[in-house]
Amino acid sequence: MTKKNFCIIMAGGVGSRFWPLSTTATPKQFLDILGVGKTLLQLTYERMVKIVPPENFYVVTNAQYENIVLQQIPDLQPHQVLKEPLRKNTAPCIAYGNHEIRKRTEDANIIVTPSDHLILNEEDFLNTVTAGWEFTQNNDSLLTLGIKPTRPDTGFGYIQIKEEVSEINSLKINKVKTFTEKPELEIAKMFLKSGDFFWNSGIFLWSLKSIDCAFKTYLPKVYDLFTAEQFVLDDVYSNCPNISIDYGIMEKAENVYVLQSSFGWSDLGTWGALYENAEKDEMQNAVIGENVMTYNTKNCVISMPNNKLAVVDGLENCIVVDTADKLLICKRDDEQKIRQFVNDIKFQKGESYI
Amino acid sequence: MTKKNFCIIMAGGVGSRFWPLSTTATPKQFLDILGVGKTLLQLTYERMVKIVPPENFYVVTNAQYENIVLQQIPDLQPHQVLKEPLRKNTAPCIAYGNHEIRKRTEDANIIVTPSDHLILNEEDFLNTVTAGWEFTQNNDSLLTLGIKPTRPDTGFGYIQIKEEVSEINSLKINKVKTFTEKPELEIAKMFLKSGDFFWNSGIFLWSLKSIDCAFKTYLPKVYDLFTAEQFVLDDVYSNCPNISIDYGIMEKAENVYVLQSSFGWSDLGTWGALYENAEKDEMQNAVIGENVMTYNTKNCVISMPNNKLAVVDGLENCIVVDTADKLLICKRDDEQKIRQFVNDIKFQKGESYI
User: Is B338 exposed, middle or buried (0-12, 13-18, 19+ CB in 10 A)?
Assistant: First the structure.
């Protein structure tokens, strides 16, 4: 492990798709959503700490989550939790991380990773990151981990590759041709068949030099704000545009590459994704919770607190999520409606009910 | 209202059919199962107190429920809660009530009523009781309130009547021909069609003299135990047979009569019965709880604590019952399985989970 390796964990997200498990007070990344005894943030940290020294982590999150981050990762010092005063999407988040890393060394290898993704094969993942850094150290490049698709998923963005430029430890690196948004099913099927399309994992590898250079070129205002002599965080964020790293840099830069990866990845973006990745019983139910009894129930996702007893009889293809003060029962096919439910609750009951 | 009127409320039952709302710690009679703001016991007391003075009530229950009874009916003095040391069915329960009433007057009119039934039309009910007492005061008789059936229900026992012996305030009183157990559907349909069969409500009217005489004749051992010089409650119950008033007396005595009643009655013995009697929304859901939101959900029974938010999407013909530490989701057609679920829980998790 080298002291030059740095990790920026993006942990500021607040999604409603996993409501009522994930709430504004405790978003998904801070939950043991898989029932494995560790939160997604903890899993992310424990995975990365094998190749990044603990003092080289920066967790970027909203100010309100500082304590939860420090509780969940006791290794971290308070200054390693970067508290965003406003939510401004991923580009400012990464610029903030860079700002801290720049104080430490100008020669950093950086991985930027979401805090709430699932990675099944840790060894493959770490080998992939190591290979990627070998490339980014020696080439002025912005490298994204592209996941070899295994199904025509319409829930992800896709990256189309062009010519291969390198191969490190049997892992191929290609130039990027295009980024595409979430496709329709027919298109997704074509993408899968062509072999040139990869899922956009949102995990990035680069050197500090390369990403700084990219910010200077494509998001100069953001770069200037984060490198000004007078650095006042609230002012920086007030003046910073709300823009994603994909839109602001990756889709514009010339030196963007994909590392073809296959370490068993899911963004766990939906209950469906959780269902796919969770352990299932003989009736194909994904059950989280120690006291759940099912009868004539199949293809369901059931998430219960361990200390609560549940009897579920006669359900098929449903999502059942129970928390101390909220219960959701919903058809799996209707999970895109969860956002609507959450909006209805805000409107009918008030923000505090979310 | 006459000081001769006495009421014995039987409140010792512990059913599992309403699990998880009804538990051993808090059986159904102590719950606001209809979501009306009052428990079934309270509704029973408030109905009867219009024709029985508060000091003439005796609530017979298991010792463990003494406090809950006194909390729910603040009018009662502790000596009016008769604490059974053992569960011995309805005959000893009634004998215990008689034992207390006998100390007060030998000339009592008594109503014996379950604590957990629903009565919709209170005025008709009170008129029925008043008419019934007029008959039992003047005739050595054991009178049961027979409910005119409105459907071929297979969940109740039926009573077949023979000749009419009296009519008081347009209410007819007939001799009983037979008591029958819960019938098969085809038989129940015949019962309904014949017009001679009534649902056995388990509500009884008689004078103290007549019921004492019946105990002496048909259950002399029980009578002797409860009238012995040396009355030691624990000994009485240890030595008392476990026997119902129906089997021990009503099916054997010669002077048993039915008062033909129609005051809107349900024993609320099942979720189905609750569903029939609860208010329903436009999708025919019976929803109990102030924060339940339903989408594409119909013909369901949903019971949630008021302080818990629930979103239910895409369910049909289901029972959803949530409590602090238990959740049941079950097809309405499967409600007879709830006993099995409860047994499975006892076996797999332990008695404390019920």
Answer: buried
Task: Kindly state the DSSP code that residue B98 receives in the 8-state scheme.
Answer: H
Best of B18, B327, B342 to mutate (most A CBs within 10 Å, chain A): B327
User: Rounded mean pLDDT of A305-310?
Assistant: 93
Q: Which of residues 74-113 of B touch A (CB under 8 A)?
A: none
A308–B contact, CB cutoff 8 A: yes
Helix (H) or strand (E) run with residue A92 in it: helix A90-104
Inter-chain residue contact A293 with B353, CB threshold 8 Å: no
Q: A328-354, pLDDT tens digit by residue?
A: 999 999 888 888 898 899 888 888 777
**ipTM surpassing 0.85:** no
Q: What is the pLDDT of residue B354?
A: 77
pLDDT of residue B34: 83
List strand residue ranges (DSSP E) for chain A, in order.
Answer: 5-10, 57-62, 81-84, 109-114, 118-119, 142-147, 158-168, 171-180, 197-207, 256-261, 265-266, 286-288, 292-295, 301-303, 309-313, 318-322, 326-331
Which amino acid appears at position A293 of this protein? M
pLDDT of residue A16: 78
Q: Which of A268, A270, A306 is nearest to A288 (CA)?
A: A306
For residue B353, the model assigns a pLDDT of: 78
| Chain B interface, best mutation among A293, A306, A327, A344, by max B CB count within 10 A | A327
Q: Does A336 touch chain B (CB under 8 A)?
A: no
pLDDT exceeds cutoff 90 at A100: yes
Q: Do B304 and A327 touch (CB under 8 A)?
A: yes
Buried b (16+ CB within 10 A) or exposed e, A326-344: bbbbbbbebbebbeebbee
Q: What residues are paired with A181 via a beta bridge?
A: none
Structure tokens that stand for B133 in this block:
């007492």
Token pair, residue B222, equals 């029980």
Longest dimension (CA), chain A: 66
What parts of chain B have a pLDDT lower than 70? 1
Which 3 state secondary structure label does DSSP give B84? Answer: strand
Query: From the CA of A342, how many Å to the nearest CA of chain B?
Result: 9
Residue A318 makes CB contacts below 8 A (sequence gap 6+) with: A300, A301, A329, A330, A331, A332, B314
Q: Is residue A352 classed exposed, middle or buried when 0-12, 13-18 and 19+ CB atoms within 10 A define those classes?
A: exposed
Structure tokens belonging to residue B146: 């027979």
Task: Provide the percentage of residues in chain A whose pLDDT is more than 90.
Answer: 79
pLDDT score at A270: 82
Q: Which residues of B touch A345 (CB under 8 A)?
A: 293, 309, 311
Q: Convert the pLDDT of each residue in B144-158 to its tens digit.
A: 999 999 889 888 899
pLDDT tens-digit profile of A117-167? Answer: 999 899 999 999 999 999 999 999 999 999 999 889 888 899 999 999 999
Peptide bond preceding A27 in cis form (omega within 30 of 0): no
